[in-house]
Amino acid sequence: MRKIISFMHISLDGFVAGPNGEMNWIKADEEIFDYVGKRIREGDTALYGRLTYQMMESYWPTAADKPTATKHDIEHSKWYSKVNKVVLSKTMKDTGLTNTKFISDNLSDSINEIKKSRPASGESKEILLFGSPTATHSLMQQNLIDGYWLFVNPIILGQGIPLFVDIKDKIKLNLLSTQQFTCGVTELNYTVDRQ
Length: 195
Prior knowledge:
Elements: E1 4-11, E2 15-17, H1 30-40, E3 45-49, H2 50-63, H3 71-82, E4 84-88, E5 100-103, H4 107-116, E6 127-130, H5 133-141, E7 147-153, E8 161-162, E9 173-180, E10 186-192
Parallel strand pairs: 1-6, 1-7, 3-4, 3-6, 4-5
Antiparallel strand pairs: 2-8, 7-10, 9-10
């Protein structure tokens, strides 16, 4: 069974965005881009909520073509064009986009079907859930997230969109690894303890 890993930047006090969705507090540099790039290249499926997908779709398909494209822009743009994209949205419909599937209902059944599917390579690859707090909350409430890949930024926002809301039962986690970055961000890589 494939695992869904939630990839999120988070403030020290648990927020993933400011009150109006602001993300200008997130620290990301080449060191972090290189580190993240190695892991996401192992994944073959990206999971997004509608807003995050629209943001990604407006930038990544052509990011590598820009004259000012960075190494990260070029690498991530290539990955984005090949990766299977799954979008959770009640309003967007499947329009026949290449490598893109929309899920609007039967969330648990649809996600479990994707988790049980085998990638073309035959290897069990991670499904990475990028940002998308609303989608993350929906998956969390149905116990569909298998791990949390958190990048804790050295800031206290005081208010905003929290990562963890409406948690009905404890979620036990096992720490797999940590990484400290020069910019002050600390990566925490957890797996959900299903026992």
